[in-house]
């Protein structure tokens, strides 16, 4: 079985305060798929993503990356395969400079200095953050932090890219640049987003969460045309499908 396959079976997660965030989730994502996980605030998207590389442990059910179960003993292997961009970049940036943060993962892989430097330069260039390399991360703006957080993951060359709200806080130019980057990324990508126009443009599949369960799983256009489903999940179609308010034509 390809190690790029993500399998989630009957996944349940309750937080220590008793909140049942995931209440039995199952799906399989195949190599090369581009999948968005969408849903209202609190639907369980971040909780789900945090299981894909073992940052959270299931209360019940399991996650596999190919043949490898995501369990304590396999975390180093899983995290080499699955690169995770967190919702809050402050959870990802902790070194004195941007360059140190982007180098951290490749250095931990034991790569030679020249290769680490190449990866740092390339990853920062990909997110348009080369000019920030000597800055301390806490001095960056929110959008700059987000771009650097993405670079820290790209520098690891993951086979599966998992991103929690990658365009949140980005200006329109940076958003466009990131979308171009994601389009180029040929391996599996899974992300959450409230930016449904981006989802429509980048994904061939959407998983809709509602109160910790999968409410729908299918092609974006089909899902975004289902008004009943969207309103029951407190969602609205992407702006590009809402039509012109004057002539009522739709995109
Ligand atoms: N550490 C925690 N302790 C207790 N409950 C939590 C914790 N983190 C999240 N929750 C709860 O779990 C549920 C799912 O939260 P989650 O962050 O996964 O939602 P989300 O779909 O990512 O939302 P958003 O769109 O706002 O980012 C919510 O009810 C939330 O209040």
Automatic annotation (TrEMBL):
One of its GO terms (molecular function) is ATP binding. The keyword Thylakoid does not apply. Pfam families: ABC_tran. Its main location: membrane. Keywords: ATP-binding, Cell membrane, Membrane, Nucleotide-binding, Translocase, Transport. It is a peripheral membrane protein. Residues 6-236 form the ABC transporter domain. SUPFAM superfamilies: P-loop containing nucleoside triphosphate hydrolases (SSF52540). InterPro entries: AAA+_ATPase, ABC_transporter-like_ATP-bd, ABC_transporter-like_CS, ABC_transpr_CbiO/EcfA_su, Co_trans_ATP-bd, ECF_ABC_transporter_ATP-bd, P-loop_NTPase. Belongs to the ABC transporter superfamily. Part of an ABC transporter complex. Responsible for energy coupling to the transport system. This is ABC transporter ATP-binding protein. It comes from Geobacter benzoatilyticus.
């Amino acid at each position: 079985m390809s190690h790029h396959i993500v399998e989630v079976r009957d996944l349940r997660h309750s937080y220590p305060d008793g909140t049942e965030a995931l209440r039995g989730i199952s799906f399989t994502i195949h190599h090369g798929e581009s999948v968005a996980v969408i849903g209202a605030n609190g639907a369980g998207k971040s909780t789900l993503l945090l299981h894909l590389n073992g940052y959270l442990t299931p209360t019940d059910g399991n996650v596999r990356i190919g043949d490898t179960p995501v369990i304590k003993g396999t975390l180093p292997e899983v995290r080499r395969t699955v690169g995770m961009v967190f919702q809050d970049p402050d959870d990802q940036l902790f070194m004195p400079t941007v360059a140190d943060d982007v180098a951290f993962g490749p250095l931990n892989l034991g790569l030679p200095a020249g290769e680490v430097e190449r990866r740092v330069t390339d990853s920062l260039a990909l997110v348009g953050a080369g000019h920030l390399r000597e800055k301390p991360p806490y001095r960056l703006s929110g959008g700059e932090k987000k771009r650097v957080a993405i670079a820290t993951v790209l520098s690891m060359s993951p086979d599966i890219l998992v991103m929690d709200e990658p365009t949140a806080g980005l200006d329109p130019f940076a958003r466009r640049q990131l979308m171009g980057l994601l389009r180029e990324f040929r391996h599996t990508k899974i992300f959450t987003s409230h930016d449904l126009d981006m989802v429509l443009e980048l994904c061939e599949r959407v998983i809709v969460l509602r109160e910790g369960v999968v409410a729908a799983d299918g092609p974006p256009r089909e899902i975004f045309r289902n008004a009943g489903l969207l309103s029951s999940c407190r969602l609205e179609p992407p702006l590009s499908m809402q039509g012109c308010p004057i002539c009522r034509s739709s995109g």
